[in-house]
Specification:
Layout lengths: L19 H17 L2 H13 L4 E7 L5 H12 L3 E8 L2 H7 L9 E5 L13 E5 L7 H14 L3 E7 L3 H14 L3 H12 L4 H10 L6 E5 L3 E7 L2
Helix pairs in contact: 1-4, 2-3, 6-7
Keywords: Methyltransferase, Transferase
GO molecular function: methyltransferase activity
Pfam families: Methyltransf_25
């Protein structure tokens, strides 16, 4: 695997023909991986960076998957007396069906099965974010996605995604072979790393989208957190 450049290999999860039971197992395992390897902490860090002293927010996640990121944010907001409503957008109906089983999110969340680009909001979200979503796209698609987030979010956006690195690639390949019960996770986890980014690639993408004033932070384990807040 040549990790000097981003891989263009598609993940199995990008297919339309994955059965619901297999996606459910994949979602459950991704939640555990995000919990153990710092993914949820990075999402929470991005949210708190943009929160300020606000006590009422509408938050949108694109590529919302099984809803585990929104559960983490909801739990934190309840603890800190912050009123939140969520919009979760995912193009895969099986992911949305699984997310709807998260009963704790039922009263706070609107789920939309759609390509995020076709969604029109009556009231723009305060914050838009994505987690482990950007690496599914080509660079040109990502530039358009960054522009959409920048133009649509009222306060700003953040992105939590993978840092492409040989250690991360071979470590996740070994760990998933040893411990995963999901063929999707075993196949897609190392591909996700190979499709991830190094810092200068994020800088180029943001520059191409004409976005300045952002911050890029390295996060454990092998992640980047990109945050942008409107002035």
């Amino acid at each position: 695997m040549n990790l000097q450049v981003r891989s263009t290999q598609k993940e199995l999860l990008d297919s339309d023909a994955i059965p619901f039971a297999d996606i459910s197992q994949n979602m459950l395992e991704l939640n555990r991986v995000n919990h153990l390897l710092g993914g949820h902490r990075t999402t929470l860090k991005g949210f708190k960076t943009l929160l300020g002293n606000r006590k009422r927010l509408h938050i949108c996640e694109i590529g919302s998957g099984g809803g585990d990121n929104l559960l983490v944010l909801l739990s934190w907001c309840k603890t800190h007396s912050i009123h939140v409503t969520f919009t979760g957008i995912d193009i895969n109906p099986h992911c949305i069906a699984f997310a709807r089983t998260r009963t704790l999110l039922e009263s706070t969340t609107s789920w939309i099965t759609s390509d995020y680009r076709t969604v029109v909001f009556d009231h723009p979200p305060d914050i838009i974010f994505s987690s482990l979503f950007c690496h599914h796209f080509t660079d040109d698609e990502l530039v358009s996605q960054l522009r959409w987030m920048h133009q649509t979010a009222r306060l700003g956006f953040f992105i939590n995604d993978l840092h492409r690195h040989p250690f991360a690639y071979y470590a996740i390949r070994l760990l998933t072979r040893l411990f995963s019960r999901s063929y999707l996770v075993k196949n897609d986890a190392p591909i996700s790393v190979a499709r991830g980014f190094v810092k200068h690639e994020w800088q180029q993408l943001l520059s191409s989208a004409s976005i300045t004033g952002y911050a890029i932070q390295p996060r454990w384990a092998f992640r980047h957190l990109i945050t942008y807040q409107h002035g």
